[in-house]
Specification:
2 copies of one chain form a homodimer. By secondary structure, chain A is an alpha+beta fold. Chain A has 6 helices and 7 strands, in the order αααβααββαββββ. The radius of gyration of chain A is 18 Å and the shape is globular.
């Protein structure tokens, strides 16, 4: 299964040169995407500036976010969790982080801030026009995706490399495309390698609760290979 | 909130001409994406051919799938669910269906088949390299997204235009990037406008259960506006 993926990626390279080129050039830059770009609305910029101010005394931190995994992170992951026979496979090197794989402004625009003492994580989010479900509103899968990111980042602060084991999402109100929202996440309980979390997903003025969710994340066991 | 979205889209158009061009040309074609393309692996093609054979006696149907909402569907939706004062806003016309908004092979490749008598829906899926989470594996949000599609298509067969109200997903095993999997969905119960569904998410050889999920979908009420 995994070997056929490398073959598939080679096919993509020869069949879709333009896509592949942007893909390769991006690999080199390792640009941090969790900063404002021209697609960010005024609402998102205001919220970003507010949280950057909270970072000044060190209580909050902005988390960097990359489209391509930086080589040092990848190496650690490969050493611990991937069978060495797969370590040179293209499928790992050519993948892009799902929620960062869109052109600026078209998909998931977001930045995550964390407060490790309070065990809280805040995700500021603007969902672009390529995330549409019912016309004019965010797709349920896009909502689930950014919730997975918000909860996952929160779990990772306590657990290192984690994987989602359960997501339970209640969709309360449709989320307008391109609007700005805030996801507040927290760790409710830790039992061994299991981290139990919850979040709420609100409009930027906190007047509309779009969704709430719980998540169970598992800290990966360095003694067990994923492949 | 909704009006600022149209402004945002105009900004994108002037600031990101290339993206906008491909965006606009796609709008005109209304191509059905639920058919094989060069990125499809052999495994996905074999499964597709098997289901196309099942369609020959009319018991199963392949469902078309568009990146841009065809105008006739959009008109019906606008008439029923969107406040007329918003009906000409760009945000609806320029949006793309989230799970179809990637280049061929890079994101969600899938086709959905349904059997209306048995109330079953099968989604054949291949997740491309832009859907990566933990290196080499599908992002939890991408898994949730294709589950939302599979369950949503199943709900829509019985309920028309539906929205997700709850998704509860158990992630059992990591899903290798670019592998082929099958999601079997069914309606378990209907109570008024509520549709209760469940699904399992398996490898193409049915040997690995990657995930299972339940979903609650609500049939939209034509008497109520979303905006």
């Amino acid at each position: 299964m995994l070997r056929s993926c490398a073959t598939h990626l080679r096919t993509l390279r020869s069949g879709s040169v333009e896509v592949w080129r942007s893909f390769s050039s991006e690999k080199v830059t390792h640009k941090d995407h969790a900063v404002p770009n021209p697609s960010w609305s005024k609402d998102l910029r205001i919220l970003f500036d507010q949280f950057m101010k909270k970072c000044e005394d060190g209580s909050w931190k902005r988390l960097s976010s990359y489209r391509i995994i930086p080589p040092e992170h990848l190496k650690d992951f490969q050493t611990q969790f991937i069978d060495p026979s797969y370590s040179k496979e293209e499928y790992i090197l050519k993948g892009q982080l799902f929620t960062r794989s869109f052109e600026d402004g078209m998909g998931f625009e977001y930045v995550v801030f964390c407060n490790d003492v309070e065990k809280k994580v805040v995700c500021l989010f603007q969902g672009g026009p390529f995330l549409q479900g019912v016309p004019g509103f965010l797709h349920g899968g896009a909502t689930a995706s950014i919730i997975d990111v918000a909860l996952g980042k929160c779990a990772a602060r306590a657990g290192g490399i984690v994987m989602t084991a359960n997501l339970n999402i209640n969709y309360k109100r449709p989320i307008p495309l391109c609007s700005v929202s805030v996801i507040n996440s927290q760790i409710d309980k830790i039992e061994g390698r299991k981290l139990f979390l919850s979040c709420n997903f609100q409009s930027s003025d906190e007047k509309i609760l779009y969704a709430d969710a719980t998540g169970l994340f598992i800290k990966l066991d360095p003694k067990k290979r994923l492949t």
